[in-house]
Amino acid sequence: FGIAADENFVITTTNRKEITEDNFSDLVQDGVTLYLLQSVDQILLLATKERIDFLPHYDTLVKSGMYEYYASEGQNPLPFALAELIDNSLSATSRNTGIRSIQIKLLFDDSQGKPAVAVIDNGSGMTSKQLNNWAVYRLSKFTRQGDFESDHSGYVRPLPVPRSLNSDISYFGVGGKQAVFFVGQSARMISKPAESQDVHELVLSKEDF
């Protein structure tokens, strides 16, 4: 930090509480932002950035599809919601060397549970970490960095072309979770990475919340 050996300094929290041997374990936690200052009341000459982590209320997720899709410019929003789900499969199968298989099934058999929309593909699959990150609200598959392992690692967004199998058909850009909660009340993701024996499953359910 370029501090001379004979120069005094203090370490404080953003609330200007000085870190000492006595309060270190209480004030210094993972992700906390600290200031290195000449004095506790030193004026900051530049703007600082602090990372904020928060858990949104579950209504933010389960009702977001309704709020996102109401602004569908007078069009029937259901096709766009289905397009979001298909878009995930298009991304997942974009690097297939063989046949790209994407199936859309509308399930209405009460003996199998509640009615459902199932989108099935033969893409690369997701690890447990990638599946966990898929559940993070507003975490775009194109902007996941750092500790976030993208569910479409290595995927390259294609050049803008008329909407087709070689494009991203996502219209609203709100992602699969919002699309799911526009259509129904729960999402079940079942995925097996191509190079793994493990099958991973994630359920996001309004009822469970």
UniProtKB/TrEMBL annotation:
Gene Ontology process terms (BP): double-strand break repair
Name assigned to this protein: SMHD1 protein
Organism of this sequence: Serilophus lunatus (silver-breasted broadbill)
Gene behind this protein: Smchd1
